[in-house]
């Protein structure tokens, strides 16, 4: 029993580096153009098809999507010029021209937080040991359940 317990404790100390899942979150501040589409009655054009045409490619949509439940659609233009936005739904729709003078990147004064990761290394060895024991106990219980089901006599 002491050997098993020592093995579990040793695994508990080694496992955090193996099972850790890091998360890397990044962002890029940009100014977004939000298009709102609604019928004359004021009802939003929810789930309407949207196509966005760049100034240098007026025949081919560079961005496609649908509006949300409020009839909104957002995109970020990456170059200056006359951007065309077409919204269609059930035979209704229209086309909008949006002049963009400069690339729309916005300088923010806020400093982003450093990426935050979550790993098992933040737990104490005692907590890790308890977690490993719980997993082992669950695996043993599952194995015993499966083994007991195989031994049941088949009624004929």
Automatic annotation (TrEMBL):
InterPro entries of this UniProt entry? CarboxyPept-like_regulatory
Q: Which UniProt keywords apply?
A: Carboxypeptidase, Hydrolase, Membrane, Protease, Signal, Transmembrane, Transmembrane helix
Pfam families according to UniProt: CarboxypepD_reg
| Protein's UniProt keywords contain Protease | yes
Tell me the first and last residues of the signal peptide. Answer: 1-20
Top-level taxon of origin:
Bacteria
The record, for Gene3D superfamilies, names: Carboxypeptidase-like, regulatory domain
Provide any one GO MF term from the record. Answer: carboxypeptidase activity
Q: Where are the transmembrane segments?
A: 128-147
- Quote the protein name from its UniProt record: Carboxypeptidase regulatory-like domain-containing protein
């Amino acid at each position: 029993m002491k050997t098993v317990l020592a093995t579990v404790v040793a695994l508990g100390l080694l496992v955090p580096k193996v099972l850790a899942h890091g998360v890397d979150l990044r962002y890029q501040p940009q100014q977004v153009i939000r298009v709102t589409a609604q019928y004359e009655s004021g009802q939003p054009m929810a789930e309407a098809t949207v196509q966005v045409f760049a100034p240098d490619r007026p025949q081919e949509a560079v961005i496609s999507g649908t509006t949300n439940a409020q009839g909104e659609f957002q995109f970020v233009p990456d170059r200056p010029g006359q951007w065309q936005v077409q919204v269609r739904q059930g035979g209704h729709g229209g086309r909008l021209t949006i002049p963009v003078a400069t690339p729309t990147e916005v300088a923010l004064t806020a400093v982003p937080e450093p990426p935050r990761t979550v790993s098992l290394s933040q737990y104490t060895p005692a907590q890790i040991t308890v977690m490993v024991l719980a997993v082992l106990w669950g695996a043993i219980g599952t194995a015993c359940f499966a083994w007991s089901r195989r031994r049941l006599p088949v009624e004929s």
